[in-house]
Amino acid sequence: MSYKQNVAELIGNTDLLRIPSLSVLTGCEILVKCEFQNPGGSIKDRAALQMVKDAIESGELKQGMTIVEGTAGNTGIGLAVVAKALGYKMLTVMPKGQTPEKEKMIALHGSELMLVDPCPFANPNHFYHTARRLAEENNHYWWANQFENTSNAKAHYKHTGPEIWQQTEGKIDALVSVSGTGGTIGGTSCYLKEQKPDVQIWSVDPDGSGIYHYLKTGEYKAQGSSFTEGIGIMRTVANFAQAKIDKGITLPDQDLVTVSRAVRNNDGLVLGSSSALNLAGALFAAAKSGPGKTIVTFACDAGERSYSKLWNPEFLTEKGIRDDLETIEQMLERYRAMDEDVIVNVTRRG
Ligand SMILES: Cc1ncc(COP(=O)(O)O)c(C=O)c1O
């Protein structure tokens, strides 16, 4: 007999999928790691499992305790899955204004949900500080702390990176990733660079996030805003600090909408918003590197979780975004024609 012992064992070992339309269009192999296959539906299940496993091993997390975490949603869902599978309670602290889809999933997975008003990080009521404070005030709470707890990046160093290496048989030329805590890009880039130092690591950032500016100047500054959720950073956190990044770009929400429609119509994959940004980044990397390369990125979650924003025509109209502004072919041509200066060459900045 061959079976998994519990739901947590379903985490990881996701498929790597070729996106035929974008691969044919660019002449590159555009491959996505199908992280929506995890039982909690997102890449954050991996971080959740590793953080919990390490805390059990170190003795910080004991039976009967409650896991508490501040999150834009997916880490809360991942931790709720792991908590139920391994016998813990879960309390998720989430800012209001994330998609209701994620709020519902957290409750559905049996986590208690505390919604707080969205506010800047410096405000003590920010969801991050609220989760920390709750854990400080209750000794039967354990705070996962996905931003500073490097078990998060370790999950990707131990599993995601090796899976990509094996699935591509080492023929990977570039990895493209968004960052929320930087766990994914941190752990995966470290592993892949150890195997192949010249693999190019691309960071793709939405409007409203400071990573692009940070890579360029060393300072966090952001312009505009984005409807993407769970991604973007405005401070240096321990997981992102591990990332070995070669190139940085920033792309607007309009571009991820265009890619999401092309991939839905041509390939049958309904992407979440961060995944669509990843694929826009992969298209950009293909445009700039020329044909013949193998470019890997992540489908961090699936489209259901972005139903009320990315897939909601009224919402997009309110934001002034069109889903027919340009074709994917026109977008690729625009990327090809773009000045090289829009790319931050991190290694060169040294
Ligand atoms: C949908 C989605 N995509 C991407 C990310 C970013 O992943 P990471 O935290 O590993 O940088 C997150 C969460 O942080 C997320 O929820």
From TrEMBL:
InterPro entries: Cys_Synth/Cystath_Beta-Synth (IPR050214), P-phosphate_BS (IPR001216), Ser/Thr_deHydtase_PyrdxlP-BS (IPR000634), TrpB-like_PALP (IPR001926), TrpB-like_PALP_sf (IPR036052). Pathway: Amino-acid biosynthesis; L-cysteine biosynthesis; L-cysteine from L-serine: step 2/2. It comes from the Bacteria. Its EC number is 2.5.1.47. Its cofactor is pyridoxal 5'-phosphate. It is an enzyme of class 2 (transferase). GO terms for biological process: cysteine biosynthetic process from serine. Keywords: Amino-acid biosynthesis, Pyridoxal phosphate, Transferase, Transit peptide. It catalyses: O-acetyl-L-serine + hydrogen sulfide = L-cysteine + acetate. Residues 9-301 form the Tryptophan synthase beta chain-like PALP domain. One of its GO terms (molecular function) is cysteine synthase activity. Pfam families: PALP. PANTHER family: CYSTATHIONINE BETA-SYNTHASE. This is cysteine synthase. It comes from Kangiella profundi. The lineage of its organism: Bacteria, Pseudomonadati, Pseudomonadota, Gammaproteobacteria, Kangiellales.
